[in-house]
Amino acid sequence: MDLDVAQVRAFVRTAEELHFGRAAGTLAISQQALSKRIARLESLLGTELFRRGGNGVRLTEAGLRFLGPARQTVAAADAAVAAVCGREHPLRVDVWGHLYAPMRSLAQVAGRAGELALGHGRDLPSVTRALLHGDIDAAFGRVHPPLPAGLAHRLVRLEPVDAVLSADHPLAAEPALLPDQLRGSVLWAPGALDRLDFLHRFADRFGIENRATSVNLGLAHFLAEVAEEPRRFSLVPADVPLPQVPGLRSVPLIDPTPLYAWSLLWRSGNGHPALNGLAAACAEEAGRSRWLEYDPTRDWLPEPPTSGPAPGREGTVDA
Fold it and tell me: Which residues are bridge partners to 162 per DSSP?
């Protein structure tokens, strides 16, 4: 049985969008042409891959089983064409968690990782969609479950987190704080907490019941909002260079120290030669700068740290 890559690509895009019109738009073909390709693929396989009904489009059990290998087929086809035609593009890397300045870490390895082209993602869901569509090759930020099938990630950096609060806050003069001491304060978040996994989990773990949200208009604006109210606080990775905001105090957190986990994320089966170079550069910098130090007796992470597979070696785990 020989598969038509165009038909498989049409299936993958539709499975990712769960909408025939949007999938057709991403492929620059008509919805009718998309439907024909999927119908031919279903005829070849002898089974339905999608269930269409009043509740929209859903994958059948066969479609769910087919999706992972189908993504690998499309990626392998793209890599084969690039290898023959010599049109290998720079490694397209996106970031998310912009308020916490993810480019600080990438900047330390960029010179050793080959040519990088930066994308424009704003959050984890948008970045994962770009990866699955093949619009980017890798991404960097904080990964948290659930991740869509077809993606892999590798832990790169664990960064201690400080509390930032108003200089008029009752705890502002302390040299260090226990997270439990913040229970009577108001956690100020740059958006809805259900979209900010790290802050949400911190609040739940340490009993922070008073929570309020703002709009992310950049770090300086956000910290100015924290500084203007004596009961507010928020969390910022310790290495983030803070803007000069009057009336703001940054205090280390201890016993335990929260750690913000940065990871490299990519699409399984991506054969871009620079992907391994970027992963190797991150690992080298992690060893040099002690980025992955973790002691469960003194540190806190929402999830236990795992290094994950290296690019091109899915299924193996590096210590």
Answer: 236, 252
**CA–CA distance, 191 with 142 (Å, rounded to integer):** 16
Q: How many other CB atoms are there within 10 angstroms of residue 112's CB atom?
A: 13
pTM attached to this predicted model: 0.71
Q: What is the pLDDT of residues 294-307, one digit of tens each?
A: 999 999 998 866 66
Q: What is the pLDDT of residues 192-239, one digit of tens each?
A: 888 889 999 999 999 999 999 988 888 899 999 999 999 999 999 999
Per the omega criterion (within 30 degrees of 0), is the bond before 125 cis? no
**Token pair for 207:** 């009993």
CB atoms within 10 A of CB 186: 19
Radius of gyration from C-alpha coordinates of the chain: 23
**Largest distance between two CA atoms of the chain:** 72
Strands, E, within 238-287: which ranges? 248-252, 257-267
From the number of C-beta atoms within 10 Å of its C-beta (0-12, 13-18, 19+), residue 193 rates as middle
